[in-house]
Design goal:
Helix content is about 35%, strand content about 15%. With about 300 residues, it is of the alpha/beta class.
């Protein structure tokens, strides 16, 4: 039990994944708002196992991911993750933020690098990158043992369940090698960018085994994106899927069909990505339809 979460048990991702429960598990992506006004914020009404609060999507000024995750947990009781980018803070700031997250009752964090700044961006903002993501994962693992980046002792250790990211579109072999290094550093689960070919999952697992010399026992939440005809797409989408969208097939229907392919391929941990619209708005209604339409096996 955690006093900061109102006496509620704070679930860790590794406690709720398919490997732990035998049931499909969903993490749903959620973008923080561009205002700190609590009256204008609508709580996520998403029936996922976890809400994953993104880190400054679009490199825009948004509510801090850890603070919003704690607010969602406190107001709704939903289990949460927050994303933390190494791009914007030095070691002192990152580890201090993690202690603040601990005080707020947070226990799940996903480490990312953050989208690179363009030359134009760099005229207004500085890239810090004091840690690489792999070194940040190692640092959090050390904090879980009670040690900070200066090798000083914390008054009490953190207890974060540490997540890392995958982008199989960058090359499955190289991504598997990087995943192995992140696992060695202390990552306990992975979240992937959306995939549309379920065979990529088995290719990744084979490449990981070749790199590590053993199977990966860590849960991987493979990305399932809900598409919209005029939405923004960051992953490589097959031409057949694009044509179906252009011909008017609903993105929810396409996502549910792909979900069943995931199930048939033994992919039971899902990272659900709601539609991303121009200007940064999200189609959470479509995500709710997908969650309502799936059969939890």
């Amino acid at each position: 039990m955690d006093p900061q979460s109102g006496g509620k048990t704070v679930a860790k991702v590794t406690d709720r994944c398919f490997e732990a429960t035998g049931h499909s598990a969903f993490i749903c992506d959620f973008s923080p708002p561009r205002t700190g006004d609590p009256e204008s914020f609508t709580q996520p009404n998403l029936d996922a196992d976890f809400i994953s609060v993104a880190y400054n999507p679009g490199k825009a000024v948004r509510v801090n991911s850890a603070m919003l995750a704690a607010a969602i947990k406190g107001e709704t009781g939903k289990d949460v993750l927050f994303t933390l980018a190494t791009r914007d803070m030095n070691k002192l700031a990152l580890e201090s933020l993690l202690l603040g997250g601990q005080m707020l009752g947070l226990e799940n964090v996903v480490v990312v690098q953050g989208d690179p700044f363009t030359q134009r961006d760099l005229t207004r903002v500085k890239d810090v990158s004091d840690f690489t993501p792999t070194r940040m994962i190692s640092a959090i693992a050390a904090m879980n043992l009670g040690t900070d980046y200066r090798e000083g002792q914390l008054r009490s250790p953190t207890r974060y369940c540490i997540g890392a990211t995958l982008d199989l579109g960058r090359g499955i072999g190289s991504e598997a090698q990087l995943a192995h290094r992140k696992a060695q550093a202390g990552a306990q689960f992975f979240i992937s960018q959306p995939i549309f070919d379920v065979a990529d999952a088995s290719r990744f697992r084979q490449a990981f085994e070749e790199s590590a010399g053993h199977d990966s026992e860590l849960p991987v939440f493979f990305g399932l994106q809900v598409l919209e005809q005029d939405g923004i797409i960051f992953s490589s989408v097959p031409e057949t899927v694009r044509q179906e969208l252009e011909q008017g097939r609903p993105g929810v229907e396409i996502a549910l069909e792909l979900f069943h392919r995931f199930q048939q391929a033994g992919l039971h941990n899902i990272y659900l990505v709601p539609p991303i619209r121009r200007g940064g708005a999200r189609g959470y209604g479509a995500a709710r339809e997908v969650l309502a339409g799936v059969e939890r096996l």
